[in-house]
Specification:
With about 450 residues, the chain is an alpha/beta fold. The protein is built from 14 helices and 17 strands. It is globular.
Length: about 450
């Protein structure tokens, strides 16, 4: 069975919501739409307080090479522009819209009809992705049109579609593969055309046999697309680990996947690309899993961007009594949320409701030099050392020990018998070293 070799852990899968079909969530009464929903520069608002907007209308324009357009996910009137807390815990500029009945922008196909024929050229596809604000839906939210622009001197050979969803609890990608499989493969074909490649591989962990069977059957009708079952091992869905598992190639330290001739996109991104190119539909909604031991009804919702997550929790049975934490994302890479008024954004894959007992951190003890964190690190780093260097603010050494190679998977912290907050330190280290590297580049 294909997998990556270095490191990895096996946390309980807890895929409670895998059997829950995607439900369309009702529109919120008020939508909160941050202008920063992607990696790179924030989008610049093109509407003001008091303006009437339609569903799918451009409301914030890309403001840099790495940036993305943002469209109104609802119809209504702009109540105000204000700072709103997002999943990071920081307040960001956002448009607040009082929601009215849906009235879509002209030219957007909202039907369920599948459009198979791809009529746009390579250049038009990339332009359409940019226009529709498509970003990576696997977590990084990197603008997809930028990823399609292969740098001079580099050649793309393979498109890899990431259907792994190795993060415990989350099932949004799983359900999307089961319910929108053909659209995903059309989206993959569009991405292949944009990249100029003839081969695409869909990687899915073998704990989703129904998705593997379904997409394998559909892929027979699509030229150049193959579906591959992967061994269950976290973090199989990391793009460097996925490339290694499927091609045997390794992304060099400090380099991007294109160095191996590969471009990786999530299944959710492939579906969004299908909707953008074939339906002229901007990225204004996505599938979000609401789950956890504390969740009353683990569910998968198709939710509009800007919907407060409190509404999703309410439709999943309401707030549980024994709630300890609300996590944005999964337990390994997700972050605890400050409150439930945080809105759904393009990168929101799941909401995890943790019980009080399981959400408590264990008491931190001294490092016992057991080297478990080293053994499970999929990047071959020494997490215990990086944490110590960060603690003592030794930034030059932290950079030399390749802290920027860390993918923040949390395997080190998960396996540490002393309960040391290794990932917390390493995240801080990446932030500080990243600042130093950027300031060095400006000189």
């Amino acid at each position: 069975m294909k997998t990556f070799k270095l490191g990895g852990v096996h946390p309980p899968e807890n895929k409670f919501s895998s059997g829950a079909a995607i439900e369309k969530l009702p529109l919120p009464k008020r939508a909160f739409i941050p202008v920063t929903q992607h990696l790179g520069a924030p989008a610049a608002l093109v509407v003001n307080r008091g303006d009437e907007v339609k569903t799918g209308q451009l409301i914030a324009k890309s403001s840099g090479f790495i940036s993305a357009n943002i469209h109104s996910p609802v119809t209504g009137k702009v109540f105000k522009v204000d700072n709103v807390m997002d999943v990071s815990g920081y307040k960001r500029k956002a448009l607040i819209i009082d929601v009215a009945e849906d009235d879509w922008e002209e030219g957007i196909d909202t039907s369920d009809d599948i459009v198979r024929e791809i009529t746009l050229t390579k250049e038009q596809i990339i332009e359409r992705m940019a226009e529709m604000g498509i970003v990576g839906l696997g977590g990084a939210t990197f603008p997809t049109h930028v990823k399609m622009m292969v740098p001079k001197g580099k050649t793309a050979e393979y498109l890899i579609i990431n259907g792994v969803e190795c993060e415990p609890y989350l099932t949004s990608d799983h359900r999307l593969m089961l319910e929108k499989g053909e659209e995903i493969l059309i989206g993959a074909t569009i991405l292949m055309k944009a990249l100029g490649v003839e081969k695409a591989m869909v990687g899915i962990e073998n704990n989703k046999p129904d998705a593997i069977e379904h997409l394998s059957k559909l892929a027979k009708e699509f030229k150049g697309i193959t579906v591959h079952a992967l061994k269950v091992k976290y973090p199989q869905g990391g793009e460097k680990q996925l490339i290694k598992a499927l091609t045997g190639r390794e992304v060099p330290s400090g380099k991007l996947p294109i160095e191996t001739g590969c471009v990786v996109d999530n299944v959710g991104t492939a579906y969004a690309v299908y909707e953008a190119v074939q339906k002229n539909k901007p990225l204004i909604e996505r599938v979000v899993t609401v789950t956890g031991h504390a969740a009353k009804q683990p569910s998968n919702f198709l939710a509009r961007v800007g919907t407060p997550i409190a509404q999703l929790i309410e439709h999943a049975g309401g707030m549980p009594e024994d709630l300890g934490k609300v996590i944005g994302g999964g337990p390994m890479m997700g972050k605890a949320l400050m409150n439930t008024e945080v809105p759904v954004v393009k990168g929101t894959s799941g909401i995890l409701l943790m019980q009080k007992e399981e959400s408590k951190r264990v008491a931190v003890k001294n490092c016992i030099r057991c080297s478990r964190c080293v053994g499970v690190c999929p990047m071959g780093l020494e997490p215990f050392l990086l944490a110590q260097l960060v603690e003592h603010q030794l930034w030059e050494r932290t950079e030399n020990e390749k802290v920027m190679d860390c993918i923040e998977c949390g395997s080190c912290q998960y396996t540490c018998p002393s309960g040391r907050p290794l990932l917390d330190y390493i995240r801080l280290g990446k932030f500080k070293v990243g600042q130093i590297i950027r300031s060095r580049g400006k000189k």
